[in-house]
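Notes continue from the previous slide.

Worked example: a multi-chain complex. Inputs as given:
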Amino acid sequence: MRSAFAGSHPALNFLFFASVVAFGMLFFHPAMLGISFAAALSYSIRLRGRAMCKTLLCVLLPTLLFVVFLGAAFNHYGVTTLFTLSNGNRVTLEAIVHGFATGGMVLTVFLWFVCYNAVVTTDKFLHVFGRVFPTGALLVSMTLRFIPLLTRRMRKIFEAQRGIGYGGGRLRGGLHALSILITWSLENAVDVADSMKSRGYGSRGRTSYTRFFWTRRDVLLTLAVLALDALVIAGMAAGQTRAMYNPYISLPAMTAFSIVLYACYALLCFMPLALDCTEEIRWNRSR
Amino acid sequence: MPRKPLLTVVSLTLCLAAVLVGAFLLRDRSYYLISGVILLLACLPFAALFRRRHGKVRELVIVSVMAALAVASRAAFYMLPTVKPLCAIAIITGLYLGEEVGCMVGVLSMFLSNFLFGQGAWTPYQIFGMGFAAFTAALILRSLRWQGKRIPCAVVGGVCCFLLYGLCADSCAVFAMAPDLTWKSVSAVILSGLPFNASHGAVTGIVIFFLCRPIGEKLERLCTKYQLFYAAETTVPQAEGEPV
């Protein structure tokens, strides 16, 4: 689905994802985890629709439960025993909660990456990193493009082998296909390079076309993200995001500051979704 | 091609420093930052390579193809975690195109394949380990002029993968799992990773044994045909009518 956030400046997109992924991996506090998880989940469903729900139910939820199960079955720290297994090991509340926190963290970061991959396309990646580090950015984007291409070529080779009735067997046929693939791709690489050169790659004074411009909204939102980042980091420095699960669950006391912190974090995480919703409402009204 | 291992050694040392800074000062939390820094540092020798002979786009694209091959080879065997031909392909590339190029392919493919397999605290360590292993294996084999010999290549490659990559990848687990860095806890973590690393090294050796000649022939042929990499300065000038 087209997202208003995806239409804003790539630098803003990068800044946003860098902050939420970094914060997502830093915070073990249940409130912070919950906010980030909810935001990542809803935004990924908005971006990917039904396919995302399917992945979530079939892959991600089982993974989460597996992590929780592992944590509860193999960690026996904690003071609150829920029940004792037949071999004398205790299953504790702390281990289960910690398992949920770890699993939720992994899941949240994964979901943010799903959103990232939908929003930050290769041209945006190149736009942001191309000027700072042109060769590296080019290599990364070119390699990313070659991976599906090689897979497709491999399939073509297999089909051709089958078509001419080649009976090399699985292993030998596979090795031959690999050999063909390497020759083909390396020769093709030279053609690609020549094509790039003839279109002016690396020549002096060449400018590159860009579709991205800073609008006033982008500037304002970037400033907002930076301010929210600063507030969240201040909260982290004040110890408001610390959480301990071993030996007993201990969270920092709820204060006015921590509520402001949660609100800021929620504002940050839900920013793209809010932007999308406002745009949609405005669009529907204007019709 | 005059080789410049010094620059690569310096940049690998800087990479190690970045990993250690990340582990101790940032308490291992900002691994994306560190992996970005490592990627940048590992590119240093390569960038120097390209600055010297500007306009060699062909070499750039070939490196990218080799890295894509390495990523695809890792993705093809995703069911078997120790079967990662990635390391072998990086070493073979280093063997025939120069150690800096092998290092670059290892770093790039590890970074990109982790987009498919999940980025995390292990990314910088794996990137560093892969670049380090590919560079060292290729440096040893090239300086001994053992490129065409399959068994020495397989042995040196496997051992480099086992020792260097294994150690670097495990140090992630050391920093994550052992809060008190004592010899006992560190050796426990490293010993627990030993079987995995041994099988990874063995697979790397086997893949090098089987693929080093087929891939090497193709790379050599390409270098000779288009005057790339090492062939650029050693062989006769380009023939008439050859597209530049």
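Summary box: Chain A touches chain B at residues 18, 21-22, 25-26, 110, 113, 133, 135-136, 138-140, 142-144, 146-147, 149-151, 154, 175, 178-179, 181-183, 185-190, 192-194, 196-197, 201-202 (CB under 8 Å). Residues 126-198 of chain A form one domain.
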